[in-house]
Amino acid sequence: MATLPITIQVISLLVAFLVMLFIGRLIVRGKLREEYAILWIVCTIILIVFSVWRRGLEQIALTLGVFYPPSLVFLAAIFAVLVFLVHLSVVVSRLQSQIKTLSQEVALLRHELESRTAVKEASTSQIAEPAATSE
């Protein structure tokens, strides 16, 4: 298999560094949490490694017995996407449980506040009624 032209190597390095810069800016602005940024940084580092090590993908594919090296990239990408989706499903499930617990606690606190307000209003009206009848 022919090696990649140098222009593709330069473009992939440039894209990888731009992605790294973009991830850094998202972290600084607080729009991306560090736990998710690690995944993107690792993917970018892998892209940089394969951009610099031009025959690396072919050698790894040959080692794993994959006939066509780009199919190894697609296989790895599909596997990474599936793992990330499972992780996001776990996070969403945990957040849904926390929201349910918080809404139940808010409902209980609201009920307690309303009952205390009702008792307080009843006691103030009982104090005000004898004063109104005595006049």
Structural class: mainly alpha
C-alpha Rg (nearest Å): 31 Å
Oligomeric state as shown: single chain
Mean pLDDT: 88
- Level of helix content? over 70%
Distance between the termini: 106 Å
Number of E-state strands: 0
What are the low-pLDDT stretches, counting only 5+ consecutive residues below 50? Answer: none
- Which term fits the overall shape? elongated
Number of helices: 4
Largest sheet: none
Query: Topology as H/E string?
Result: HHHH
Q: What is the percentage of strand-forming residues?
A: under 5%
What does this structure look like?
The chain is mainly α and 135 residues long. Helices cover 87% and strands 0% of the residues. The chain is built from four helices and no strands. It has helices at 6-29, 34-52, 56-64, 69-134. Helix 1 runs antiparallel to helix 2 and helix 3 crosses helix 4. The model has no long low-confidence stretch (mean pLDDT 88).
Entry summary:
The protein has 135 residues and is mainly α. It has helices spanning 6-29, 34-52, 56-64, 69-134.
Blueprint (SSEs and pairs):
Blueprint (H helix, E strand, L loop, with lengths): L5 H24 L4 H19 L3 H9 L4 H66 L1
Helix pairs in contact: 1-2, 3-4
From the structure above, extract its key features.
elongated, 4 helices, 135 residues, mainly alpha
